[in-house]
Write a structure and sequence with these properties.
By secondary structure, the chain is mainly beta. It has a single domain, classed as Metal Binding Protein, Guanine Nucleotide Exchange Factor, Chain A, CATH 2.170.150. Helix content is about 5%, strand content about 35%. It contains one helix and eleven strands. The protein has an eight-stranded mixed sheet. A hairpin with a 5-residue loop joins strand 8 and strand 9. The longest helix has 7 residues. The structure holds zinc ion (2 copies).
Length: about 150
């Protein structure tokens, strides 16, 4: 797992390993993510579904599904104890999982590939204009900038 990573929730009840390099790092300013994050955009590692291994010792995870813009379900997975947003599953693309960057043991070396839903970003939110910008959703599979 040369480019994989590990992470956990705030309280440590949920731990995971991602065994492959993420497909992309996406920042999402959609209204749903603003609720789910408590105000900021979501910072998301897009990873192949099978590369995400949730540790067997992990305690309970709570799921919440809602309808996205696409009309398809997005399921958000939280630690049942501390409420840290951990993962997302997209009905529109079951081959991927989204992992919240804030749960990574070391997120300091990341570079954002794309910023999505800039149309619903708050006026005070920072948008990194050196990344690929999308007014709404990006289309999966997503071509990573610079390979
Ligand atoms: Zn927790
Ligand atoms: Zn979003």
């Amino acid at each position: 797992m040369a480019q994989g990573f590990k992470g956990r929730c705030f309280c440590g009840d949920v731990k995971y390993t991602v065994t492959e390099e993420p497909i992309a790092f996406v920042v999402c300013h959609c209204t749903d993510c603003q609720y789910a994050s408590g105000g900021g955009p979501a910072h998301i590692q897009v990873v192949p579904k099978d590369s995400l291994k949730i540790d067997d010792a992990s305690k309970r995870i709570t799921d919440y599904s809602s309808k996205a813009d696409s009309g398809r379900l997005v399921t958000r997975h939280f630690c049942s104890r501390c409420g840290t947003p951990m993962f997302e599953t997209l009905e529109v693309d079951p081959s991927i999982r989204l992992v919240k960057s804030g749960t990574m043991d070391d997120a300091s070396k990341l570079k954002v590939d794309a910023t999505v839903y800039t149309a619903s970003a708050q006026p005070w939110a920072h948008i990194d204009r050196t990344t690929q910008l999308f007014e709404r959703d990006l289309v999966f599979p997503f071509e990573r900038k610079g390979g």
